[in-house]
Amino acid sequence: MVQAGHNQFDDLTDKYTAFLLIEKGLSRSTLESYGSDLKHFLEYLNQSGVSRIQDTEASVILKYMIAMRDAGLGARTRARHIVTIRGFYKYLNRENIMNTNPAEIVDLPKTGLHLPDVLSADQVALLLDAPDTKKKTGQRDAAMLELLYAAGLRVSELINLKVLDINLEACFVKVLGKGNKERVVPINMTAQRKIDIFIDNARKTLLKGLTSNVLFPARAGKPMTRQGFWKLLRKYSRQAGLSENVTPHTLRHSFASHLLEGGADLRAVQVMLGHVDISTTQIYTHVARHQLSKIHRKYHPRP
User: Fold this and answer.
1) What would the pLDDT profile of 157-195 be if each residue is shown by its tens digit?
2) CA dihedral (140, 145, 150, 151) positive or negative
3) pTM score
4) DSSP string of 104-170?
5) DSSP class of residue 240?
6) Do 290 and 248 fall into the same domain?
7) Which residues form the catalytic set?
8) What CATH number should be reported for the domain holding residue 55?
9) Up-side HSE of residue 219: CA atoms within 13 Å toward CB?
10) Residue 184 in 3-state DSSP?
11) Same domain, 204 and 130
12) Where does the pLDDT of residue 284 fall: very low under 50, low under 70, confident under 90, or very high at 90 and above?
């Protein structure tokens, strides 16, 4: 099985190198660099038990990125590797050898980009339960926090939601993201319930006789400011006994991390985030490392 994979890998490497030389006109030195990177990656696939190139999954590529980082390779070197791997699978798509490109959702490593903290599920629960729902503003804040985490929203997306953007019967929210790109994200029953309570019990009171199409109105029926929501989040973080460094983006990353830890598909999470250029390496590598440790502890024969 392994040997068969080796033969296929060698054959594809030769064909891809010829393609780069003849059709792309790359120099010998560039070809050697690409060939070396590709050889290392394909050896890793073989060692990981992937005997057919068609069986490559995004998770294996992420593990390869982790292995390179743990081996001390810098961001630039890792970026060059992922560019090589992307190009290789793009070529395989073109030749109808593969129907998908498992490398396209892995972004380039970015130097100086720091992974925000990710809260545990228990910490998220403490934060989301912090607002005093006996108060009208507490009902609004509880609904906002729950929805922020339930749908992995950006703070700007949350505060600008309109009443018609939410469908409580079907449990989804329509979001207008960056570049005016629209996406539909499902929400859980807890978020649905808290939004329902807010709309039925508090929204009309907070509007003080005004009309507004803003789902979570602040003063004069206008959207809450980003700074206003950040202040609320800091207040509830303190009440929950969490770090004051918790930001709306922390909940967005926690949303993605928790879904992936629960077995969600990488591509599905990326679609829900609505972030084509998301730093998947930083976010998903963090999750993958955590999962790899759990898998190792669970399945390795030696304790």
Assistant:
1) 999 999 999 999 989 999 988 778 889 999 999 999 999
2) positive
3) 0.59
4) TTSPPP-TTPPPPP---HHHHHHHHT-S-TTSHHHHHHHHHHHHHHHHT--HHHHHT-BGGGEETTT
5) T
6) no
7) 154, 178, 249, 252, 275, 284
8) 1.10.150.130
9) 3
10) strand
11) yes
12) very low
